[in-house]
Amino acid sequence: MELTKGRQAEKTHKKESFLHMLDRGIDDMEAGRELPLEEAFKKITELRDARRNARV
Q1: How far is CA 38 from CA 24, 27, 55, in A?
Q2: Alpha-helix residue ranges (DSSP H) falling in 1-56
Q3: What is the Cα–Cα distance from 29 to 36, expressed in whole angstroms?
Q4: Going by C-beta distance under 8 Å and a sequence separation of 6 or more, which residues neighbour residue 20?
Q5: Quick one: pLDDT band at residue 4, thresholds 50, 70, 90?
Q6: Distance from C-alpha of 40 to C-alpha of 2, rounded to nearest angstrom
């Protein structure tokens, strides 16, 4: 029973976290804080590389 409650709490937390990220993204778009597509992909690559390098 407690295992089920833990899983439900985890799912609820993930859902709330996702909705919070989505809200922040919408706020950024409304405020004009968005990158052009090419710059966004460059930034994604930079962040991905930094994360991979941090693991090593």
Answers
A1: 21, 21, 26
A2: 2-30, 37-55
A3: 12
A4: none
A5: confident
A6: 42
15-50 pLDDT per residue, tens: 899 999 999 989 998 999 888 899 999 999 999 999
**Residue closest to 29 by CA, chosen among 18, 38, 40:** 40
Give the model's pLDDT for residue 22: 93
Q: Look up tokens 């295992």; give the residue.
A: 3
What pLDDT does residue 7 have? 85
| C-alpha neighbours within 13 Å on the C-beta side of residue 13 | 6
Burial 22-46 (b: 16+ CB within 10 A, else e): eeeeeeeeeeeeeeeeeeeeeeeee
